[in-house]
Amino acid sequence: MKVSCTVNGERVEADVPSRLLLSDFLRHELRLTGTNVGCEMGVCGACTVIVNDEPVRSCLMFAVQADGATVGTIEGLDSDGRLTPIQRAFHERHALQCGFCTPGILMTLAALELRNAMPKTETDVREALSGNICRCTGYQNIVDAVLESAP
Amino acid sequence: MKPAAFAFHQAQSVGEAVGLLAQLGGEARPIAGGQSLVPAMNLRMATPDALVDISRIPELQGWRKIGDRIHIGAATTQAALLREKDLAEHLPLLMAALPNIGHVQTRSRGTIGGSLVHADPSAEIALVAATLEAELVLRNVSGERRLSTRDFQLGALTTALEPGELLVEIVMPVADAGTRCAFRELARRHGDFALVAVAAQIAGDRLSIAVGGLEEVPRRCDKLIEKLKEANNASAAIDEAIRIELGDVVALSDIHASGSYRQHLAAVLLKDCLLEILP
Ligand SMILES: Cc1cc2nc3c(=O)[nH]c(=O)nc-3n(C[C@@H](O)[C@H](O)[C@H](O)COP(=O)(O)OP(=O)(O)OC[C@H]3O[C@@H](n4cnc5c(N)ncnc54)[C@H](O)[C@@H]3O)c2cc1C
Ligand code: FES
Ligand code: FES
Q1: Each residue's pLDDT tens digit in chain B (279 positions)?
Q2: Could you tell me the distance, in angstroms and rounded to a whole number, from the CA of residue B258 to the centre of ligand 1?
Q3: Which of A126, B79, B83, B256 is the most exposed place for a label (fewest CB within 10 A)?
Q4: What distance in angstroms lies between residue A104's CA and the mean position of ligand 2's atoms?
C-alpha cells in the first residue's frame, strides 16, 4: 500500500505492506534507528514518536495509518545540530545511562512542550513519564533534569 | 514483521465502514486507536484478515449536548476528550476517570468506543459507563440498535456486539448542577490497568456507584445504594452498606492480585469515595 507522510520535515513516499509497523518503517525503511523498539506491545515507551503533534507508540501503529501525517522522531529534535534545553539538562544531570529509553522520553516531553503541557512538579513529571520505562537510572536524575529544564 | 498479513481499509464514513465489515465478513475487524488490538496482533493472539480503520471518520469524532444527554462519537480519543474543558462541567465523573487510562502516549490514540468494545474488567470507561447507565448506539448495514451498558458488556472481553456491527455513539446523562463525584483506583504502577477501581456520583440524594476490576463486568452497587437510602445517605451507615454489597461477591483472582485482596480493596475504595461525596 502507498503511504505518504512528512518525517522530520521531509516528504516521504513509500509502498509498504499494511502490516508494517510504523516503528519498523522508521527504522528499517527510513533508517531512522534513533527510535528504539523494546516490547513491541505498547508497554515500554522506547518507540515513542510524535504524530500530528501527539506522542504515540510507534509499535502500535501501522505505517499505512500515518498516511498524510506529520511524524517527528528523535533525529529531528535538534534542527540546527544543537541540543535542546531538555537534551542539555539530560546530559548535565546524567539522566541517561545506556540511553535506550532516552529517545522515547525526549519525544514524549517534546510533545508535551508543543501543547504547553510540560510537567512542573515531581509528581507531574513521574506521571507524564509513567509510560516510559527506564531500566538503568532509577528515574531520579530524569525527574531532576525535567524539573531543571522546565521554564 | 510481527503481525500476520491483513488487508487495510481506511473508512471515510460510518456507512462505508459497516458496508466494508458486512462485505469482508467474519475475520474483518474495525480498528480505532489500536491500543488493545495491535498488541494482540503483534503477539499474534489476534489475526484478523482485514482491518477497517474507523479513526478518521468525522461522524465518530467529538461530542454534542442534546437536551440533558451528552453524545460522544465512538472514535473520539481519550486525549481529545481530556482537552475538552467544557465536558468537565457536563461529565465530571468521566473526566476524573480518563487520566487513569494507560499513559499519555496510549491516550493519544486510544478511543472511548474501543475501550468499551475491548471490555476489560478493569477498564475505567466501562466503569463510568456502568455507573452513569450510559446508552450505547450500535450500527450495521441494516440499521441501528441501542443497548444499556448492562446489556452490552456480557463478560470479560465479551460484549453483545455482533460481527459487522460498529459502536458509533456513547450517550451519557449530563450531571446536574451541584453533582459531586469521586473516582479512585489502585494499580500496581501508574498507568497499569487498575486492580480495583470505584466510580461514584451523587446528585441531590440520588447516588450512583460501581466497582470495576472486582468481577468480569463492572458491578453496580444497587444493594449498597438501597441500604444507604434507607439511612438517608448518612455516613454512619457506610460500613454496613459496603458489607452487604460485597457479601456475595466472588472476586477475580489472578497473577496481579488474589480475590480476597481485590475484595478488601473494593471495600476500602468504596468507603473513600463515599466519604468524599456524601454530604
Ligand atoms: C500500555 C498500555 C496501558 C493501558 N492501560 C489501560 C488502562 O489502564 N485502562 C484501560 O481501560 N485501558 C488501558 N489500555 C488500553 C487502552 O489504551 C485502549 O485504548 C482501549 O482498551 C481500546 O481502545 P482503542 O481505541 O485503542 O481500540 P482498538 O485497539 O482499536 O480496538 C479494540 C477492540 O475493539 C474493537 N473496536 C474498536 N472500536 C470499535 C467500534 N467503534 N465499534 C466496534 N468495534 C470496535 C476492535 O475491533 C478491537 O476488537 C492500555 C493499553 C496499553 C498499550
Ligand atoms: S516498543 Fe513500543 S512501547 Fe515498547
Ligand atoms: S538509560 Fe538505560 S533504559 Fe534508561
Answers
A1: 799 999 999 999 999 999 999 999 978 999 999 999 999 999 999 999 999 999 999 999 999 999 999 999 999 999 999 999 999 999 999 999 999 999 999 999 999 999 999 999 999 999 999 999 999 999 999 999 999 999 999 999 999 999 999 999 999 999 999 999 999 999 998 888 999 999 999 998 899 999 999 999 999 999 999 999 999 989 899 999 999 999 989 999 999 999 999 999 999 999 999 999 998
A2: 25
A3: B83
A4: 9
CATH 1.10.150.120 domain range(s) in chain A: 85-149
B42 touches chain A (CB under 8 A): yes
pTM higher than the cut 0.90? yes
Residues of chain A neighbouring B6 (CB-CB closer than 8 A): 18-19
- DSSP states of B23-49 as a string? HH-TTEEEESS-TTHHHHHHTTS---S
Q: Distance (Å, rounded) from C-alpha A24 to C-alpha A31?
A: 9
Domains and CATH numbers, chain B: 7-53 (3.30.43.10), 59-173 (3.30.465.10), 180-277 (3.30.390.50)
B-chain CB neighbours of A61 within 8 Å are: 34, 38, 109
At the topology level of CATH, where does A2-76 sit? Ubiquitin-like (UB roll) (3.10.20)
Q: Measured between CB atoms, does B188 come within 8 Å of chain A?
A: no
Which DSSP category does B4 fall into? Answer: P
- What is the topology classification, in CATH, of domain A85-149? DNA polymerase; domain 1 (1.10.150)
The interface predicted TM-score of the complex, written ipTM, equals 0.97
From A125, A111, A37, select the one nearest B108 (Cα to Cα). A111
Are A80 and A144 within 8 A, CB to CB?
no
